[in-house]
Amino acid sequence: MAAPIRLRFGAGAAGALWRRLWSSQARDPAGPPPPSEVVDVAALLNDASVGSSPKHRDRSRPNPQATSVLLFPGQGSQVVGMGRALLQYPGVRTLYDVAGRALGYDLLELSLQGPSKELERTVRCQPALYVVSLAALEALRHQRPEVIETCVAAAGFSVGEFAALVFAGALEFEEGLHVVKVRAEAMEEAAAAIPSGMLSVLGRPQSQYKVACLDAQEHCRTLGIKQPVCEVANYLFPDCRVISGHLQALQFLQKNSSKYHFKRVRMLPVSGGFHTCLMEPALEPLAQVLKKIDIKRPLVSVHSNVDGNKYMHAKHIRQLLVKQVVSPVKWEQTMHAIYERRKGIEFPQTIEVGPGRQLGAILKNCNLKAWKTYSHVTVMEEDKEEEKAPEV
């Protein structure tokens, strides 16, 4: 059996991240060859947890400006060509090789060449975003290693939460990829059962989201639809929501948007009403696969989409990753939880790790002062990434 693969990525959370990222390959003698920078880093294993060394104790109360927050985007940020700018960094091709073996198709080719319609499919899109975000993390490790070492919090939008948990050392790369694969397949199957979708709504202070959803449900009942679904699925920033549900309900809201003081509405190019009870058929497959993997306590704070709070332990992670599929993404609340501070206290650097700058655009609308230290990792050869709201 091949010796365990170890990479020199520094100590603490960053070291543990990369040790866990590659360690699962050691169990597979037929696995891909090790990256070019494999070295013996026994010293790394002696300092693999946050708070275990004087270095981390000294940083217990750091200057906020010297710390960082990493944000991982979700479905809707994908674009053909993503990942091309990352191939120059050691380890990125290995990530894609491992992913291709696990998924049974060439994920790198799909990400670089498309076609876009295939990349947009939930079953393809979610694994693609998971891998490209972790590839972007590898690029960030080369470009700005101090950002990884000084990270105090992370969050991911929907499927991006899995990349955030891998970064924090709670999941191994291959196991996380397998879970994302099962999740994507189950969600796509659930979406195919009922015509449904998602509607992006830019509202006003007087917008009536709850009334609008109730009226849309009643409209569906007049059409003979039993137990119609129409509810807020994403809280993005003040006066911006994504509503999910039956297609007929969303079409009703489009037609009557002015009645509820909606400024702009737009159907999103997704296959189903994600983050609602319409995804209940996906719960059991996801719960079963999560039971079979070893989940560790995160080495840095990772905030859950379900309530914006930090994950505390493995059982907590298993419960909320399942619940997330049928619960609204409370991203606005998560941003408030991460960036809440007393007046006069500076903000950490914020880096979006993955394609696009959508999460930066949301942060700008949630907290302008926090956004002023925002940057993102470029994953395209030519930076064509737009600021737009994530979809699921």
TrEMBL record:
EC identifiers of the protein: 2.3.1.39
Pfam name, any one: Acyl_transf_1
Transmembrane segments: none
SUPFAM superfamilies: FabD/lysophospholipase-like, Probable ACP-binding domain of malonyl-CoA ACP transacylase
Catalytic activity, reaction form: holo-[ACP] + malonyl-CoA = malonyl-[ACP] + CoA
Subcellular location: Mitochondrion
GO process terms (BP): fatty acid biosynthetic process; mitochondrial small ribosomal subunit assembly
Location of the Malonyl-CoA:ACP transacylase (MAT) domain: 71-380
Pathway in which the depicted protein is active: Lipid metabolism; fatty acid biosynthesis
The entry's keywords: Fatty acid biosynthesis, Fatty acid metabolism, Lipid biosynthesis, Lipid metabolism, Mitochondrion, Transferase, Transit peptide
Family listed: Belongs to the type II malonyltransferase family.
The protein's name in its UniProt record: Malonyl-CoA-acyl carrier protein transacylase, mitochondrial
Organismal lineage: Eukaryota, Metazoa, Chordata, Craniata, Vertebrata
This protein's encoding gene: MCAT
